[in-house]
Amino acid sequence: MKHLTALKALVLLACGAWAVTISEIQGTAFQSPLAGQFVHGLTGVVTAKDKYGVWIQDDRTDDPRASNGIRVYGSAAVKYASIGDLISLSGRVAEYRKTADDLFLTEIDYVTALTTISSGHTVEPIILGEDRIPPRNQLSSLDIGRDGWLSVPSNLTLLESVNPSLRPDEFGLDFWESLEGQLVTVKAPTAAQFPDRFGSVWVYGNWPTTGKNERGGRTIHSNGPDEAPPAHPEAIFIGRPMDGTRNPKAVMGAVLSDVTGVVAYQFGYYYILPLTAPEVVEWPDFDVPSSTLNYTTHPCQIRIGDYNVENMNPRSYHIPKIASHIAHHLHTPDIVFVQEIQDDSGARNDGVVSANRTLRALVNAIKKASGGVEYEFVNVEPEDNKDGGQPGGNIRVAYLYRPEQVSLVPGSIGNATLSTVPLVDWEGNVELSYNPGRIEPEHSAWEEARKPLAAAWQLPSGDRFFTVNVHFSSKRFSSSPQGNARPPVNGGFEKRTSQANVTAHFVSSLLDLSPNASVIVAGDMNEFTAARSVLRPLAAILIDANDVCGVPLAERYTYAYDQHAQEIDHVFVSDAIARRGGDVEHVHVNTWARTVGERASDHDPTVARLWVCDAEIDAAWTAVEYGTDHGQTVL
Ligand SMILES: *[C@@H]1O[C@H](CO)[C@@H](O)[C@H](O)[C@H]1NC(C)=O
Ligand SMILES: *[C@@H]1O[C@H](CO)[C@@H](O)[C@H](O)[C@H]1NC(C)=O
Ligand SMILES: *[C@@H]1O[C@H](CO)[C@@H](O)[C@H](O)[C@H]1NC(C)=O
Ligand SMILES: *[C@@H]1O[C@H](CO)[C@@H](O)[C@H](O)[C@H]1NC(C)=O
Ligand SMILES: *[C@@H]1O[C@H](CO)[C@@H](O)[C@H](O)[C@H]1NC(C)=O
Ligand SMILES: *[C@@H]1O[C@H](CO)[C@@H](O)[C@H](O)[C@H]1NC(C)=O
């Protein structure tokens, strides 16, 4: 664009004033050094245009921190400037954001003296992955703490108050900020998951990334006990196309055609606003394989399923889909931990708290789907509107179980306010004071939250094991990971930390009575194990079933949010179970769906096959069928 420099010099002479360049306006920090000032004779070529303004660009300097593109806002630009025009204008340098939780977008407003110098110019986009490569680890130098961007306490500083100098080679926000306003191309991007409700799609380009799973998504995990989990700053959101076309209904792992657009900040995130919509050029396979953990023949082994069934009531359209997943993808496990069972009147706020009809409907649907497997169910009715979730819905956790395989240790079921505790019965066996029963339901940790349901079970042999089904508080009111608060706010983490703690306390009291007890704690914990401070109380006394079974780090996910695949549903087991080995699989019936609408739930189910009593009596059988290391077993 050498010729532009010459033209610009002419214009500047004509204006009779020395003017600034776009790079000087953008500067080398997050905010413009010229914010609030009026500038004259600013020139640039129009690269893109929408209803509210245009984007212009001039020559790039050698400093990778200073962008040479900028937003020109207002009707004058819309009216008088076209793509390819070299324009000159005067205006005010402004830092714009919609809310104080966002980062600023630098723009020129109050535009006057807009003139077109010449037309028909083209601007070569920066090829991401070739000309510039996004960093892969953390989002911001301000995300201090052991868990990086997931560290708590959070919101220790506000990025725009610090306004740090950009370090685009190291930090994701700095990288995208250094390209703000510039025309860029992403070649053959891979979608990270479904579009959001506005049609925007997270993508990874053809450049180095971390956490890549087999589907083509990127999973949140840390690489070691002392490493902060990468935040996937190398992903970018593709926003609404500027020419009015629509982005495709992408899915995790779909490959798109090349995208060219302008880097902008809006709605709490950096985006590429494409000139026109890409299309999907390669779809992943939509056949979701069933779990391979389809049977067990050993009396000490059980199969459990875990599934957040998303606000299920007796009339839910998704009951047959969930039932089919349990029957065909999970192969009717012996016990299914379910979360988000609503009461019999669903979201109607009418005082109904029983979920017998909801659970009956699910159990009947599974019987139909499986050709005859008949579950029994058990749950404890909550107090009306005391457990959070959709008002009136009274969601709770529940167990479905196959009475021919397992039964509850005889006892009396708890109620909403009674707390179950482990006891030793007259024969020296550990039992629960209420079975099943809630764990410290009146503890402040569970205010406006689902209470965990503990149960003592027995096998036909009489051997006992214990389960806790949990649904911790949600991440609602988290701030955008690309927002002003650093580290970003992890909504509800105090709640979840204390819930993990109360749950862990219960398990400890059980293990105090019986150090070799087989205990399984599973459910929707609304948290990643990489947010170590939150789940530490549980992780300190139990073992992640993924670790027992050697599930690759990148394949540990049950959910997709923003650009990440992530595991927020977990199975933790006691030492006794871990020592015996086992298998666990996350079955991606929902994160791999064809569309958001075709999902049965926002969570994927998990299935595990575990040993809940000692199989030594059967050592020969074990050796033949499983080798010596259960963790390595493939049926
Ligand atoms: C379990 O799955 C395997 C492979 O998918 C199949 O060969 C086998 O017949 C199944 N077993 C049962 C009991 O369903
Ligand atoms: C729900 O089912 C349980 C167990 O079968 C029973 O004890 C309870 O009375 C039922 N509740 C209602 C409201 O029908
Ligand atoms: C639970 O049972 C206890 C003891 O019978 C009783 O005092 C309490 O009111 C019950 N709670 C609810 C919510 O029904
Ligand atoms: C972060 O803290 C500041 C006060 O320092 C507060 O104004 C802001 O609302 C907080 N941000 C979020 C997302 O909670
Ligand atoms: C965890 O529980 C223990 C014992 O119940 C208590 O002393 C501690 O303060 C709790 N910690 C948190 C973070 O709730
Ligand atoms: C627990 O099991 C281990 C391994 O089977 C055994 O060595 C240990 O003695 C048991 N501990 C107790 C308290 O039963």
From TrEMBL:
<keyword id="KW-0732">Signal</keyword>
<feature type="domain" description="Endonuclease/exonuclease/phosphatase">
    <location>
        <begin position="326"/>
        <end position="603"/>
    </location>
</feature>
<protein>
    <submittedName>
        <fullName>DNase I-like protein</fullName>
    </submittedName>
</protein>
<dbReference type="Pfam" id="PF03372">
    <property type="entry name" value="Exo_endo_phos"/>
</dbReference>
<feature type="signal peptide">
    <location>
        <begin position="1"/>
        <end position="19"/>
    </location>
</feature>
<dbReference type="GO" id="GO:0003824">
    <property type="term" value="F:catalytic activity"/>
</dbReference>
<dbReference type="InterPro" id="IPR005135">
    <property type="entry name" value="Endo/exonuclease/phosphatase"/>
</dbReference>
<dbReference type="InterPro" id="IPR036691">
    <property type="entry name" value="Endo/exonu/phosph_ase_sf"/>
</dbReference>
